[in-house]
Design a protein that fits this description.
This protein has about 270 residues and is α/β, with parallel strands linked by helices. The chain contains eleven helices and eight strands. It has one domain: Ribokinase (UDP-N-acetylmuramoyl-L-alanine:D-glutamate ligase, 3-Layer(aba) Sandwich). Strands 2-1-3-4-5-6-7-8 form an eight-stranded mixed sheet, with helices on both faces. Strand 6 and strand 7 form a beta hairpin.
Length: about 270
Amino acid sequence: MTRTPIDLPIPSADVLEAVRSQVPLIQSITNAVTVELVANVTIALGATPAMVDIVGEAGPFASVASAVHINIGTPHAEQRQAMVEAADAAVASATPWVLDPVAVGMLPVRTALAQDLLSRRPSIIRGNASEIIALAGVGAGGRGVDSEDAVEDAEAAARALARATGGAVAVSGPVDLIVDADRTARIAGGHILLTRITGGGCALGAVMAACVAVHPEPFEAAAAASDIYGQAAERAAVVAAGPGDFRTRLLDSLASIPAAQLRAQEAAA
């Protein structure tokens, strides 16, 4: 992993240890394609997932959760209502929450939903470059869930979103870009195999929710999450035979990655 100390604003080892010791309760309202991976990544990291996504339950649960993760990948009608309900409850109870605006831009229903949720000022927004550019209203989105823009092309849009929400924005790519209104971090790492399984990005959103649950400074939490997830993916890829094996190995790596390894990387940076 290549980075300098300024690229990682807080020791990610401390955040990982906090997740494992505090076991935060993470409400994930996520898409039907990736819900199982998101839940298992949350568990492997050391948090507790709760996939509460129906109207009448989403709001009350958000009020007691440690953090809320909203992913708009397959937004059927009731789930859309539940997302807004959960976001409103999170805001009212000062619960941190993460928005993943999957495939916004070219598709009208989810784009309108994402803009509605954006007005609730998420703590962290996580997406690929095309999604972040589209959410900021300066692009048309990518090709479905795939980005057609480079991470660096999204920096101005990410900064504008961060200033509008008062939170942090994480742009995923070969080198993740994390910004808030004033600061910038670039976290290198991860592995190409994350793009060869369904839900690699969705799961990172849940990791960010777990991190912001125990470290309530969104910029630092997002950067730590990116580092933890990227290093876990690198460890998994070394021993994986292919995408299917990598998926399992990623869970094992998240569950077993030593905080000492993260500290060693930080010391070497």
